[in-house]
Each structure stands twice: as structure tokens, then as C-alpha cells.
Amino acid sequence: MTSDYKQKEMNLGYVQAVPRPTQDELDAFYREIYFGENVTATYQVEYSDDELRQKKLRADCNIELLSQHIAKTQDVSFLEIGCGEGFLVASSVEKGWQTLGVDYQLQPVEKFNPDIVRHVIATNPSAYLEEQISAGVKKDVIAIQNVLEHVIEPEKLLQNISGLLNPDGCLFVQVPNDFSALQRLARDQGKIEKDHWFLPPQHLNYFNDDNVGAFVRSYGFRIVDGVSDFPIEMYLWGNSSNYTKDQSLGKFAHEARIQLDLFVARNGMEKYVNFYRSAFQVGLGRNMCLVLKLHD
Questions:
Q1: Which helix (H) or strand (E) holds 66?
Q2: What b-and-e string marks burial along 208-227, b requiring 16 or more CB atoms within 10 Å of the CB?
Q3: Are 201 and 173 in contact (CB under 8 A)?
Q4: Any long-range contacts for 18-26 (C-beta under 8 Å, 24+ apart)?
């Protein structure tokens, strides 16, 4: 797989990494490498108790956000494509939804959420999605959490999901907020020296709060709600906390993010969701967590 990637701005404003890897190369990367130690900051080999609490908190936040846009109160069918360690699947099961997660490996779920292993299938997520569409299956809620940035054809993924979603259903999309206005400001003011978020082949597609709406509209969806997560990039403006110029500070920024996020949640989920809804609306937050519905 090539290491000579360049940035290409697409017609809809988002950025792609080129050249594109083959599907076989990408499948091998996720089967054999991605969940290994020190490959990605998204998944780790071990977590502290507070990190586990915060991961559950974020999953509960996203399920609560989705539940606010689902008319059904019973028999809600939920599918997560690329379920990773299973925290969102676990929160969905706890909510009482009819839940299934799909990913290349079971091991991350077995390690961090063993109680919900029976709700997870280890297979190629793209192949599984196409099989379900061919079988005429429909779901009330579909989640792709930190998936859209990884796939070779993000537009095809959205088109496929539109064929699997009930007409009044919800699609949950979580993607990093990359090449964002805040990142551009940090670059313009000398707070960062390079586009450190540009990480192919892990990330092949780069969306932000300015362009993601146009992208999803082009493939049959509209954004009906959204929250962000903790705006860790605000630390770039602290002379003693800029973790991009001094990488030894990264663990301290991460630990602060965990503790402050748990602090925000101390007064209940409703206020927590509203806090991050406001942050999303002003373009703050490392990730965007979006609720999409099909065009009327």
C-alpha cells in the first residue's frame, strides 16, 4: 500500500486522500493491523476505569440523541456497521432495541463488552450490508461511527444504507471534524505546523461542519440534529498545552478531556446532550455526531 498520499479537494468541498488503495489492501489493513497496539488513537489495548466510563457516556449520549428522533418506542431495530469495541451496541441493547453490530473482528468486543458478543457478527461489513439489501431487510436505526472517513467509496456507502433504512428511520454518522475552521485558524496562527489529522490509509475521506451537509444531501439524506464531542483542539492555544508541538503533552490533554467530559455529564444526560449540541452548532469538537434522515 502506497505511503505517498496527497490531498484532493472534491466538488462537494470535502477532501480525499489519493491515490486510493484497492479494496483488498484496505480489507487486509483492518483485518490484520488496525486494532493493533499504537496503530490508532481510536482504539487501545487497555483503558483506565475513567476512560471506560467516558466511552460508555459517549455511547449513551449518541443513543439518547437518536432516540429523540425515533417515533417508535418498541421493537426498534438497530444495526451498527463497523461496531469496533461495541460500546454503542451495548448502549443500544441497554435501551431495549433489537440490536446487531457487524465488524471484521470480535476480539475488541470480547475484551471490552463481552456481555453483548451475541449481538455482533464478525464479517466484512460492506459485504454484509449488500447481502442485507439484497434480502430486502429494513432497519429503523443504522449507525456508522467513525466509518465514513475510512471507506474507499463513501458515496456508495450512503447510497447502500439508504436502501436498508426504513423511510422514517435514522442514520447515525460520526466523523472527525477535519480541515475545519478551527484547524485552519490554528494553522494560520502558527499553533500547528502540519495537517496532523491527515492520516491515510486510516482516513481516506475528510469532512467538516462546513461541507458534510452538502455531501449527505447529494446522496439522499438531510441532517436533522447533531452533537460534537470534547473540543480538545482548544488546547492548541495554551502555550504549555499544545500537544502537537510537544507530543509528551498528548497524554495530559487526553486525561483532561476524559475528566472534563465526565464533569459535564454530572447533571444528567439531557444537559450533557444540549451542551454538545451547542458546541456542534458553533463548530467546536473533535468529532461530529450526526442524525440523518432520508429526504422527504
A1: helix 49-67
A2: bbebbbebbeebbbebebbb
A3: no
A4: 20/152, 20/204, 21/152, 21/201, 21/204, 23/152, 25/1, 25/201, 26/150, 26/151, 26/152, 26/201
> How is residue 43 annotated by DSSP?
S
The cell numbers describing 60, all together, are 449513551
Residue pLDDT, tens place only, 85-107: 999 999 999 999 999 999 989 99
Position 35 scores a pLDDT of 53
C-alpha 87 chain-centroid distance: 12
Q: Please report, for the chain, the start and end positions of each structural domain, with discontinuous segments joined by +.
A: 9-294
CATH class of the domain defined by 9-294:
alpha beta
Task: For residues 199 and 40, give the distance between their C-alpha atoms in angstroms, rounded to a whole number.
Answer: 10
pLDDT tens-digit map of 259-269 = 999 999 999 99
Q: What is the percent of the chain with per-residue pLDDT over 70, rounded to a whole number? A: 94
